[in-house]
Known about the structure:
Chain A has no helices and eleven strands. Chain A has strands at 4-7, 10-14, 19-25, 32-37, 43-49, 52-56, 59-64, 69-74, 83-89, 95-96, 100-105.
Amino acid sequence: KNEVEQSPQNLTAQEGEFITINCSYSVGISALHWLQQHPGGGIVSLFMLSSGKKKHGRLIATINIQEKHSSLHITASHPRDSAVYICAVGSSRLTFGEGTQLTVNP
Amino acid sequence: DVKVTQSSRYLVKRTGEKVFLECVQDMDHENMFWYRQDPGLGLRLIYFSYDVKMKEKGDIPEGYSVSREKKERFSLILESASTNQTSMYLCASSSSSRGQPQHFGDGTRLSIL
C-alpha cells in the first residue's frame, strides 16, 4: 500500500464544474503539498499546508490531520486547468502520490 | 522568481554510455533533489543534497550517482546507462528554512536505446 494515495486517478469534467481531488496518507506528516504538472513536464507548487484551509484564486486546499486526508477543489473549472495534480507529504524530503489526470472540456 | 534549469529537455543515449544530467538553481537554495517519474509510479526520489559536497540516497539510488561541487549545481550521473533508466528526470530545489516548497525544473526526457 502506498503511503500517499490519490483519487480519482483520472477525472473528466465540463467547463464550469466544481472539481474535487482527494489525497489520503498513512504516515505522520509535517506538511502536505499540492502540485500541478502541465503537459511537457514542468511542475508548479500550488499549496503547502499543515492545517486548515488555503485558497488561491479558484483553487482551495483543505487538510484534516486527524483523518489524514486532504482535498483540492477547483471552482468554475476551465480547460486551462487540465493537468496532472499531485499530492505529496513531507517537509524537505517528499513522498508523492501517483497523481490525478484532470481534463476539462469546453 | 526561482529558476531551476535542467540542461536538456530531451536526450537520447545508448546502453552502456555514461550520462550526465545537469541542474542549476539561481536562488541560493541549500536543498537540491533528483527524481524520476514513470507512468503508474509517480515521482520517486533518486538522490538529494542538503549542502555542497553532501548527498543522501533516496528511494531508488541504484545505478545513479550525484555530484554537488557548487551550491547552485547538482548533477545526476548514470554510470553505465541501461534501457530501464529510460524515464523523465526532474530536478528540484528548496530552501532549508521551515515551510518552504520545492521548485522544479522542466524535466529531461531521457531515452536509452
